[in-house]
Design a protein that fits this description.
The chain is mainly beta. It has helices at residues 28-31, 103-106, and strands at 19-24, 33-43, 46-56, 63-71, 86-89, 92-96, 118-123, 144-147, 155-157, 160-165. The chain is globular and about 45 Å long.
Length: 166
Amino acid sequence: VSDPISGVPEVLAQKQGGLLDVTVSPDFASDRTVYFTYAKPMGDGLSATAAAKARLSEDRRRLEEVRDIFVQQPPSPVPAHYGSRIVVDGDIAWITTGEHFTERMRQRAQQLDATYGKVIRVLTDGSVPESNPFAQNPDAIGSIWSLGHRNFFGVWTPERPGEVLS
C-alpha cells in the first residue's frame, strides 16, 4: 500500500461522510485529471456533497490544482445520505446527490431551490450548461438535471444509455 496522496481537500469523515466516488478524465493519459465526490465540511456542523477536479502529479503522490466544480446547496446539518457518483462524459460531469436522510431534509429532493436528491449536470469547469432543463428558471438551481431521488449510487447518462455505472 502506498502512502496517502496529499492535496486532498478537507473531508468530513463522520457517519456516512467521506470520500464518495472517483473517476478519471477520458483523456487521463495526457491530462492526468481526476474527478471525485466527497462530504465537504462547511462549518458550524454543516456539510454538503461536493465534486472536485484535480490533476494527479507525475509521481502520483499528490493532487494539484484542486477545485470544487459543484457544492450541494444548502449545506445540511445531517451527515448522512450524501449519495454520490460522478460520471464524466466529454466536457459534462454528472453528479448524484443524496437527500440527507431525515423527513425534513427528504422534502428538499422535490424542491428546485436545493440540490438534495438530484442528478446534477455541470460542465467540467463547474459552469451550468444552458441546455439544462432548469438553467433559465430564476426560481431554480440551474445545475439540476433531475429531481426527487433518494440516495442512489448507480448512474447512467443519456449520452451513454446502454452503460450503467455503479
